[in-house]
User: Fold this.
Amino acid sequence: MSTPRLDKLLRLAQAEPNDAFVQYGLALEYMQLERWADAVATLDRTLALKPDDVAALLQKGRALVKLGQPAAARAAWSAGIAAAERAGDLHAASELRGLLEALG
Assistant:
């Protein structure tokens, strides 16, 4: 399924392949469309450009849960906790811990 917004983001991502913010925006659009595998792949590109992106790690975990991959989601969220702690973002670290606990 394609939408005008998705098409625009795809063109932008193609024009700016090394822009982590653009990649993240595209990933969020894939999540909105419930295209979980595309979202994970795009979040992986985001993280290749910006490895400590806490928001990308959080969203990657959510998409992986939707794909039925709880172990991979745990790994993403654990990496997100570490990144949040390095950045001094205790709120994000706490939110990620809550997601891990809820996942079981």
Remarks:
- The chain is about 80% helix and 0% strand.
- Residues 70-87 form the longest helix (18 residues).
